[in-house]
Amino acid sequence: MTSPIGRALRLTVYLDEDDTWHHRPLYSEIVHRAHAAGLAGASVFRGIEGYGASSRIHTSRLLSLSEDLPVAVVVVDTEERVRAFLPKLGELVGDGLVTLEECEIVTYAGRAGNPDQADPKGENSS
User: What pLDDT score was predicted for residue 37?
Assistant: First the structure.
């Protein structure tokens, strides 16, 4: 895996937390496919409140906590690599919003050790 510095593309996928792909959380499937594609990094962010195309507000502030909170999956890499990943993403995302934004990577540094030896299932990541 290379360490991109400079111009990049940020892919953001906005989903509902309860969206699934073959009985697995959709956000998890996206992260694992991004990892398998060798993209530089992916993160999942859980929102505390939001709404989308349905105009139904999802919030964690209700007495009965929502299990359908908004989720954003963010992937950053070179434009070529992100655009090459889009067809794989298209297989997964039916409902949701996908955005692309140009960005600049200022620093990209991993933890000690060889990133090529990372756990492919992400089980030993923290």
Answer: 96
Global pTM value: 0.77
Q: Which residue's structure tokens are 């906005």?
A: 14
DSSP state of 107: -
C-alpha atoms less than 13 angstroms from C-alpha of 98 in its C-beta half-sphere? 18
- 44 neighbors 72 (Cβ within 8 angstroms): yes
What's the CA gap between 35 and 32, in Å, rounded? 5
- Tell me the range of 3-17, 49-63, 100-114 where mean pLDDT is highest: 3-17
The CB density around residue 37, as the number of other CB atoms within 10 Å, is 16
> Can you tell me the distance from the alpha carbon of 40 to that of 51, in angstroms, rounded to the nearest whole number?
29
Q: Which amino acid type is present at position 70?
A: P
